[in-house]
Amino acid sequence: MSVNLKALAYEVREGAADIIFSGKTGHIGGDFSEAEILTTLYFHVMNVSPELQDSPDRDYFILSKGHSMESYYTVLAKKGFLDLNDVIERYSKFGSPYIGHPHNTLPGIEMNSGSLGHGLPVSVGIAKGLKMDGRANRVYTLMGDGELAEGSVWEAFMSGSHYKLDNLCAIVDRNGLQISGTTEEVMHHEDLGARIASFGWHVIRTDGNDVDKLIQAFDEAKNTKGQPTCIIADTVKGKGVSFIENIAGWHHRVPTEEEYLKIKAELKEKKEALL
User: How far is Cα 155 from Cα 173, in angstroms, rounded to an integer?
Assistant: First the structure.
């Protein structure tokens, strides 16, 4: 790895915490669970950069779980698309372009998202279009596990396999929690892998907070031919901070100043241990 992805994922969490504390809004639990996924995609897997943002040869990424935006802002900034200090200062302020969901007036963002269930259908359309044009680009979309209660997701699973879109990779952030409790209480998903595989997808289940395992999964997805791939990434909601992990109440909560300082201290300690 040319970049220390494991340490960078903790820097992403630090940036997300800064944005949320400054803007007094955000989805910290999902931001922290997705950090390794976004970091691995942007700094190891995908062909994306500010120089390629209008190139027909770029890879595409859709953040379908658009509410977990603060880690995405941080990754885009560290990739060179945005100024992180500007995001922190202006996030969720009146007239700011940095709002709580992706919108494609900002560089590096392909799609306005946030209404759950839209990312995979749009990604199927992009992947089908690339196939029709004979292009080798790949399309990635990150979904939340609570989002899988949306019927449009399953229509997209059906069409993705029908068109044999092996240039498409869906990732499910499987942290097991959503705003109103556990996914299994709200709308159970298991055996999720078998369900998705029954729609004709190649399914990989892996530890979504382990960079090395994610790299293996993305490599396998790229080498899978004739069908799209779904990576079920088992993660910990609030990963990296002891008093946030696996607590549904941190799905959408702004830390107090005392909590914020504790969050920053824990993240810094864990990051430094990886350097």
Answer: 19
